[in-house]
Amino acid sequence: MTVAIHWFRRDLRLADNPALTHAAQSGAVLPVFILESDTPLGGASRAWLHRSLMALNASLNGTLRVYAGNPADILPRLAKDHGATTLTWTRRYDAPGIARDTALKSALRDQGLDVHSANGTLLWEPMEVNKSDGTPYRVFTPFFRKGCAAAAPPRAPLAWPNITLLNAPNPTSIDDLHLCPTPAWDQDVLSDWTPGEQGATDRLQTFLSQGLTGYKDGRDIPSAPHVSRLSPHLAFGEISPNTVWHTAKTCPPSNDREHFLSELGWREFSYNLLFHNPDMDWQNLNRKFDAFPWRDAPEALAAWQTGKTGIPIVDAGMRELWQTGYMHNRVRMIVASFLVKNLLVHWHHGLAWFHDTLFDADPANNPASWQWVAGSGADAAPYFRIFNPVTQSTRFDPQGHYLRRYVPELARLSDKNIHAPWEAPPEALHHAGIALGTDYPHPIVDLRESRQGALAAYDRIKGMPV
DNA sequence: TGAAATGTTGGGGCG
DNA sequence: ACGCCCCAACATTTC
Predict the structure, then answer these.
(1) Which CATH fold topology does A3-120 show?
(2) Does CATH number 1.25.40.80 belong to domain A122-156+197-276?
(3) Is the pTM of this model over 0.85?
(4) Residue A466 pLDDT more than 80?
(5) CA torsion angle for A227, A233, A236, A242 (degrees, to 10)?
(6) Domain A287-461's class?
């Protein structure tokens, strides 16, 4: 029997994995994972990856070979050692990854291998969705409503593959990748998560049966169970977007369902932007932001990172992130807006922190979303959007459930006072046992003044040619 | 997938 | 009964 290597990357699943299925149809499968050093993962991602690889290896009967290093060194040698004739992988869409894959593909073909890459990550590959003039979309709504709708509908999930695993000793160990942190904070932080394909499938079922009804409005309420929490699973490819899409489609039609599907569309949009703007992780999409007067404010950045800004909704979000490796989407927008607009700290710093601390840190979603909030990205709004964290907190966490969970020192304040404790009457603070500056910080900036500062900063670049 | 400033309306207190 | 003012509630406009 011939041997086919499947190189796992961000497609850590067996179900609906076109490249893996191709390998399985070509011969006995030798599954491989390579920890590459070119695009370093954050700490949270590494901890997640460890568990995800353990789960994948278990479902592959312990045959998953794991390496750290350069695929261009490892794969040709592995193919030679096992006489492999086929090598498959799932395509990626970041420029460095594409360049490495292209070079590797031609090297392996020169070696005589049948190299097969497939789309296992996106509903629509970036090449499929363009405006009628051939240029890429820069605005989400027409991208999704026109571009995606005009392209071929998302492929239906593949049947479970019939895989014959290559029977050979596995000399490698996932532990040798040293993905687990020391000290071992991952136990607590991962306690609410189940990395791996089964955990992803269970999450989808739980969400569709319990969270989808009421999603359209409930998704904005950080204390409500109306978000899917599929993002880390999607980021590592433990479930395919096609499976999510088509399974959701089996639910009765509703505004809730369509809104959820459009959120998958945002993910597609981010990957489309990344494909067409490969330096999106550091270069402003809107180049006039190159002249934006960012501040160098390490102490403000540190206060933001550690959840000590004195703005309860911001601190709650940053503490949720630190404690759980996740943050509710509405709160992500609020904390990001606060960093880049009120603190005038460059979105690069926010991006780097999210990259390090989010389990779902994604090469496309993370930069696209930070640029969206900063104003330098793909946002159709004709004005400079600045969130008021107190207004957002009052609107989306009116009873303070979310605030009290993550900022417990404020728990005894009333629903009215908890959103802006610096405005609370002294007797209310005293009654709640809070001395501002001791038990909870004074706000590190005045919201009204810093809003004016952001508008003034924007004034300096808004007239510039794009 | 905003917020603030400005405009409009309508009810109640009061001379 | 009437006009006037105040202000909350809502709507519209503007950045």
Answers:
(1) Rossmann fold (3.40.50)
(2) yes
(3) yes
(4) no
(5) -80
(6) mainly alpha
